[in-house]
Protein: Na(+)/H(+) exchange regulatory cofactor NHE-RF1
Amino acid sequence: MQFFSPQSEGRPRLCTMKKSSGGYGFNLHSDRNHPGQYVRAVDPDSPAEHSGLLPKDRILEVNGESMLGKQHADVVNAIKVGGDETSLLVVDPETDKYFQECHVTPGREHLTGPLPQKVANGGIEKEEKADAHLENDDSRDSPVSSPEPEPADMSPTQESRMPAAVALDLSMSLAVAKERAHQKRSQKKAPTMDWNKRKEVFSSL
Structure:
């Protein structure tokens, strides 16, 4: 069961605010590891707090313009262009996750309209059908090996030579396999680890 915050009730929220002498009172940040633009912090008793904006909210629209796929600077500029008043369409983390699971992009129509519904066990059923389809394909398309021919009658000379030849081939193949495996192990190197952390971008508004 999905739990939503009392503020969102599983819906996007439209937060409209007017700039005070100290600005809107929230920090906007982006992180390359998490696509999108997020609210990092909201100042107490600020226009942002009074509008219902919350930390960790993801910004979907600024003044009616979609911010999906936009860069950090684009969102900041869109807020500044609005002058002393701005309107942000946002979703909290729980609502954002729910819409992603439904494969639906949240929009203004979800402020009051019907919400998307997840299909129960939809993913599992699809996976099972896919597995069954692959099994059918394997049985239908995989080549059927013809039965091995029975060995022809061999002369006493051929019968006596066969075991030695087979043993020689097997011993040579095993030796080659061991040598190649040893070479691969000696050539393997531990990957160089990148300890440089990606920096987040911050803007105070």
Q: What stands out?
A: The longest helix spans residues 156-187.
